[in-house]
Amino acid sequence: MTRLEGRVALITGAGRGIGAEYAKYLAAQGAAVVINDVGGGLHGEGSDASLAEKLAGEIVERGGRAVANHDDVSDWAGSERAVATAIEAFGGLDVLVNNAGILRDRMLVKMSDEEWDAVIRVHLRGHFCMTRHAAAYWRSAKAEERDRTLIHTSSSNGLLGSVGQFNYASAKAAIASMARLSHLELNERYKVRAYAIAPGARTRLTMASPAAAAVVGKEVDGFDQYDPANVAPFVGWLADPTCSAPSGSVFHVYGDTVTRYEPWRAAGTISAGGRAWDLESLDAAAADLFA
Fold first, then answer.
1. Which domains can be identified in the chain, with CATH numbers?
2. Residue 284, number of CB atoms within 10 A of its CB
3. Looking at 79, 154, 155, 182, which residue is catalytic?
């Protein structure tokens, strides 16, 4: 028996790229998969339903179980329909992988409000809408006492910062925090394990960024560190109900390497000793604060 037999997974932005690798891997491990993808362009323009349909057909031809869904993850009603697709097609939802995203790269001093809003809408609002509707279902199905897995997609640019991606990196930083918040709200109450991963791979998004493309686009001999298929087994591992990874964890995954990140934590503390600070005492204590 494969490790994910009996699990139902919904993967957003799964019609191509790294999301497609997730879908194929989870299906090969026995999961029934809903392949969500509007088939839009790199900047969110247009749509192409054939992408999700084609991949779903390929999985079924290989003996797996898959259906396509073309709803917009950032649309409230659309994201609800995507969750409903999993329930109607396969009888439930066990795994949600929030993967869909777009780019509108620009330096802060040149970025328009529309470029900000478009990226925040797909990434941050999209993660929220999908998670909200999945969580509502898991709450209603609490009596089943069944393990659930929620996987958000952050980015190393969100964890560490990236010049020229003020919108994208801000959204991805917030999404990393979503893993912790999802854990706090859903784990104890509804047995939902929540995570965030920052995948390092050759995708449409990374190849559209000159700095990233210079790294991930290089030709290699032997093991290809940036093949998106390398990330899929880690997603499959998290989706496995026997997975030992603590809920709320954040990971950077690329090639043969997995790095665990920790959330904000206190790095230095100073005290004024029971009185209000003044400028001179702050000057004197600054070295201790940043030691």
1. 8-289 (3.40.50.720)
2. 11
3. 155
